[in-house]
Each structure stands twice: as structure tokens, then as C-alpha cells.
Amino acid sequence: MKNLYHLKKIAFNYDNNIFIHDLDLEIARSKITCFIGPNGSGKTTLLNILSFLNPPNSGVIFYDGNELRKDNIKTFRNTIGYVQQNPYLFRGTVYENIEIGLKLNHINYEKRAQRIKKILSLLRIENLSGRLSNSLSGGEIKKVAIGQTLVLEPNVLIMDEPFSNLDRNSIIELEELIILLNIKFNKTIIFTTHDQVQAQKLTNLIFSLIEGRLFSAHFINLFRGKFIGSTNKFDTGKQLMTICDSGKEAEYIAIDPRQIVLSLEKLDSSMQNSFFGRIIEIEENDSNIKLNIDIGENIQAIISHEAFNELKLSLSMNVWVSFKSTSVMIF
Amino acid sequence: MICQNINKMEINRVLKTIILYFLSFQVFAKEEIVFPVIKEAESTSTGFFFDAIISSFNLIFNLDASLFNVVITSLKVSFSSIIIASLIAIPIGIIVTLNKFIGKRILMIVLNTLMALPTVVIGIILYGILNRRGLLGGIDLLYTQTAIIIGLCILILPIILNLTIAAIHSTDSRLADRCTLLGATQIQRIFIYISEARFALITGVITGFGRAIGEVGIAMMVGGNIEGHTRTMTTAIALETSKGSFEFALSLGVILLFIALLINIILYYFQQKEI
Questions:
Q1: Which regions of chain B does DSSP assign to beta strands (E)?
Q2: How confident is the model at residue B9, as a pLDDT?
Q3: Which of A78, A90, A91 sits opposite B183 (nearest CB)?
Q4: B183 to A105: CB separation less than 8 angstroms, yes or no
Q5: Chain A CB contacts of B174 below 8 Å
Q6: Are A293 and A276 in contact (CB under 8 A)?
Q7: How far is A90 from chain B (nearest CA, A)?
Q8: Vertex A46, ends A9 and A23: CA angle to 5°?
Q9: Complex ipTM above 0.95?
């Protein structure tokens, strides 16, 4: 079995609100999978289903080749570790918090001490060991919660927005930890984020979740908004974009970052969309260069090294961003 | 408006009763035959109440045996009932809060109603069950400390149950998920919730204890106010006052107040810790 999870026609609704629509999904074993989506897109709901915390209203879940039923859900849940977005810590010290799962699973004192020590050093939080849980900062709480989950040695680690509210150093540490867990310990890792760059750093298995629907491609320049009347102008709230279709009831548009043309002067071309903006971030990869440009909205463009050198682009530089109306996806 | 008027009338009536009550002592105090014990008070008739307070403190500090017998009986029945009621009510309260079942709402309404159960009603029902011709007449429980403990348990069980339910309700909603994810069983869950909500639960237990120690109806009806056996502080106060030994009653009142103060200090301590 290559895939760990196989979800068929999963739907989840609560109080007449649909959170997940007919969703089909396969998640690979021993890989890092990421779900990207704006707030309220159903990421947490999906993770609750994947961690078997909330059963879906309809659909079938196959886990490790077995169909999930009421009688085997507990066994399978024990192989999954789930770190929620705002993790809850118990009263008491950090040590006691990490210990509690082991205690509940009747693991003896020596083994407990051993495993906790290992986890504390893995997460580099030995210094927090004796601290009371209510005296921790947001980032520290997150680390302790990861420790609380990892100490039970799950095969799958699910994390909801693990990078939110973390400082730069903690983000790098967590990225290293995720890669370590995946490569060295062969763990399947599933996480959500709303930061595309973050997701791309760790994996290429990225799914976009938009309004409870899953898209296998990940949309980089995703904007929410609405069409103005029956024109072909789409208002994202901060910028007006021209799209070849018009008057649809679509709520999202996405622009392929490779289709974006950068220039120092305004181009006299057939391209309908031209915006003046400022480069706010440059990231160099082996094959290309990613630029984040502020045109009112934050837009990402991917260009080649050659083009980058030719234009002599640098941070804070003003550029023209252009793209064809046909390169905009709407849904 | 009407409600306020009634309240005012009610307060006026109560105040009048209290004033008349103390005035009546002023009158009786002058009659030597009725109240020989308070002879000293006669010299300064207006100082009767204060003199009684001083004598009551004398009784307390001289460790009067009959006084302390009553106090110990009171504490014994209250502590026993609070321990039994807590052991029953806290786990049930947690299970009721964490699980969904048919009739839960009705149960909550019933529990709330039971909170307002008058103690004499419990007394009379228990009397009906425990007396010789009653359902459990054969086991000779009437006029024993056990009977008082049973009655007090019935009284404080709904209080602790309700306050437990409120305490568990106010715990973080993420706690339930955390328990599930860590693989806690139903029994382990009860212990986790007790540990997480311990200060709120203690508030409930202490409230129950306060209710138990100040209770008079049950102790009187099923305890029988037997000296050295089932005489509690409250029944003794009622009896001694009507008998005329005001200092004795007052000294019990002072002790009762002191216990109430102690309870509130403990309660305050836990509430502070909660913050």
C-alpha cells in the first residue's frame, strides 16, 4: 500500500453549514503533505476527520488499507498524533504535560522518563521542563504540544497551522524538525498553512482547500472577491483585475505566477492587466527566482535567473506587473 | 414594581420581627424566675446582648464540654455527608456533562429544582421512610447521626452535582479533544477533568459544606436533637434559645459564624488561585 489514507466522497456539515464537500483524497505514506487554504476553507475540519476526531457525515475512509469503522477507530487513532492550532495544555509543569499521554497508556516510570528526556532534547526545550504550563508563551505552548504528541511515537503527525504565531528562529527549528521526523523517523506528516512559501519549502505535495473543496494544484496567487455587476472586472477588495470571463458567481481567482510578466516600463501590449508595484521579497531557488510584489494585493511572480539579471531587479524596486486576462483561473 | 414592593414589605416584616425578638429579651430579662442565668445582665439592662456575647466567649474559651460535644457532632455529620455526596456527585456530574443522552435537559431542570428543595421537605420525607411504620422502619435509623447524614446528602447532592456540571461546562472545550487524542478512557477522563477543574469543584464542595453545617430542618426532624448524640449546632441554638440559655445559643452562633468565615477564607484562597 503506497497510500496511507484514502478518502472517498467525504462530506462534513454542521448546523446546515457545509464544511467539506464530496471530497476524494489520497495521502501518501511517509511523505509530507500540506493543505493550503484561506481562513474558513475547511482545513481544520479536514484535519479533524484525518485524525479521526470527528467522523464525517458521509463517505468512506480507508486508513492503511482498512476501512475505518467504529470498532477499529480507537486502534487507528493511537497511531496518529494531532497537534491542534491552539493546543490545550494541562495544569502543571511542561514535564507533566508531556508525561500525561504515557501515563494514560500505562507506560512505566523508567520508560516514561527515558522517552520524555529524548523528546525534550529533540525539541530543544529541556530548559522549559519545570515551568508551569500557564507561564509559557504561544510558541513554547506549541512546542510542548508537539512534544506531548510526539512522545506517544505516532506514525502520522498532523499539525494544524504549526507555523502561525512563531518567530523566525522557531519556524526554522520546526521546519528542521519536520524534515528530520520525515526523513530519519520515516513519519507521515500532514500540516496546514495559509502561507504558500512555507508549504513549498517543505513539500511538493500541496493541496488547495477552498470552501471545502479540494484542488490538487496549489494556487499561488489566490484572491477572493467578486465580479462587479456583469462586467469582466473582478474586485478583490484592494485591486481590480480584468478577466476574460464575466458576470460569473465565482468568488476566487488565481493567477499562475509563471504567467506574470515583469517590466521596468509600462508595456504597450495586449495584456489587459498592468499594475505598478514594489518588490518586497526575493527568494532564489536553483531553477528560478520568486518575487513577491506589492500591487495593493501581494502577488507572486516566478521568473528565470536570466530575466532577473537582465532587469537588474532588487528589493524595494518599482516594477510593472502584467498578465493576460486569459491566464487568470476563476472558480 | 410590585415585586419590589413585596420585597420591601418582606424586609420590613423581617426587621420588625428581629426588633421584637430582641425587645422581648429585654422584657424577659427583668424576670428573675424565667432567666436565672442572666442575672448579671439585669444590672445594665440595655447591655444584655453584649453581656451575652461576653459570656458566650467565656464558654468558648473555657472549652465548655457540652458546647464542644455539639460542635463535634455538627462537624462529624457535615464532613461525612460532604465526603459521601462529593464521591457520588462529582463523577456523575462529569459523566452527565461529557455525554449526550436523551432526557439530559429534563435532568438539568430537575436538578435545578432540587437545589431549592426545602430542608423540612427532605426531613419529612426521610421521616416517613425511616420511622417504625415507614418503608425502612426495620433498620432503626431514625434519630441517629446516620439519618442526619443521609438527609444532608440528599440536600447537598444536587448542589454539588449542579456546581460540578457548571465547573465542567466552563472547562476549555479543547480539553475533550485532547483527552480523545491522548486515548483516555472514560474513567481516566473523569480523573483528568477533576484535576483540570479542581478549584471550581472545590468551590462546589465548600458551598455544599456551608449548606450542610447550617442546616436545621433535617437535623431536627430525623436527628431528633438528642443531647450528646444527635444534637447539632443549629438544633442546639434553636433549643437553647427557646429554653432561655441565650449565651449557650449565642456561643454556638459565634462558632457557626467562625466556621462560615473559615469556609469563605478557604473559598477565597481557591478562587484567587484559579485566577
A1: none
A2: 59
A3: A78
A4: yes
A5: 84, 86-88
A6: no
A7: 7
A8: 20
A9: no
